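lol ok so funny story. i was supposed to be doing the assay writeup but got distracted and ended up predicting the structure for this chain instead. priorities right. anyway since i did it might as well share w the group, maybe its usefull for someone
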Amino acid sequence: MSDWCLRFNAAAMEVEELTEENEKLKAENERFRRFAESIVQFSKAYPETVFREPTPEQVDVICQSLNLRIDNISAMILRGFTEQWGIMAQAALSGKGVSDE
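and the output, tada:
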């Protein structure tokens, strides 16, 4: 085979490899785009128009009546929030769709 043919075949193989890599990157980009969209959707799950935010005084009365501190309640809420984000991030990183979970 001539030198020109060898170089052409090598270039064709490189183009094919780059095309495959490009497709993989596009799929990964789409997964992370869906992940970002799911974060936006998750952030809108509890609108203040539906779930009215209590005043600090109301929270204090409730906490005192249950012998709890606001730190306990905050930690519980944040654990749930970060756990859900972890599930969504793991789905995106593992190659599954965010909605596949």
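The chain has a mean pLDDT of 87. The two ends are 52 Å apart (CA to CA).
back to the writeup now i swear
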